[in-house]
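pipeline stage [seq->struct] | target=YtzH-like protein | organism=Cytobacillus dafuensis | residues=92
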Amino acid sequence: MPISHQDKLNLLKDILNNHQMDCCGSVSECEQLKRLVKSLMVHPSLDEHAQSILEEIYKYSQHGINSVHLDNHIESHQNELTQWVSDINQFT
């Protein structure tokens, strides 16, 4: 059974929140973020602002996957992580 659009947004927020609060994460979490964002970007009611945020999160996850020091990558994006979670709350 596929998960709903809202469930995907909640999962996205949960992972981003964990990265923001713990200042660490895993490559598999970044891969999951990437998959979630790709599936959310095809939603028909997605506005331009939401699309832009998802593109930023996609780039963040892609760089995290390829990062030698993932925890440093996460730490350097603390402000963005907080903003993304806040933004996602606006369109959920």
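stage status: PASS
auto-comment: The chain has one domain: 5-90. The two ends are 21 Å apart (CA to CA).
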